[in-house]
Amino acid sequence: MCNFGVVKSNRWDVDIAGNAEAAGLLMAPNRFNPIHEDDIIAMLPGLLAAATVPATIVNWGGDETTSVDDGGIPTDNTRRLEMVGSTKVGWRDGMRRMVAALDSGEGRT
97 — alpha (psi -120 to 50), left (phi > 0) or beta? Predict the structure, then answer.
């Protein structure tokens, strides 16, 4: 039986951490490197050209690291940078574009 209070602050990041802590769960730092679809499409030819057997392993993420909390380890993009270069769309601009596209109805099926 679990007996703990529920945190409800109307901020999802605070609520997740608060409720996990109340339940006795550890929350690992959440660091990530979002990548925009424009960069994914632009990098495909270079990544396909670099494909080998056995497989070439590449962390495929954006150049910039962001987080909903402090701490953590960003994705190591060294190999991807060597193979196909930097991303062109920063994570903030990419998120704005995604929200704008969703708001306008683009990409809905």
Answer: alpha
| Sequence-distant (≥ 6) Cβ neighbours of residue 4 within 8 angstroms | 19, 22, 23, 24
Q: In terms of pTM, does the model score above 0.70?
A: no
Q: Is the peptide bond before 54 cis (omega within 30 degrees of 0)?
A: yes
First-to-last alpha carbon distance for the chain, in angstroms, is 43
In the chain, the amino acid numbered 1 is M
Tell the residue number behind the tokens 């920063």, with chain if given: 90
Query: DSSP label at 26?
Result: P
- Tens digit of pLDDT for each residue in 47-76? 999 899 998 888 888 888 887 664 556 677
Task: Delimit the domains of the chain by residue range.
Answer: 31-104
Tokens (6 digits) for 109: 């099926």
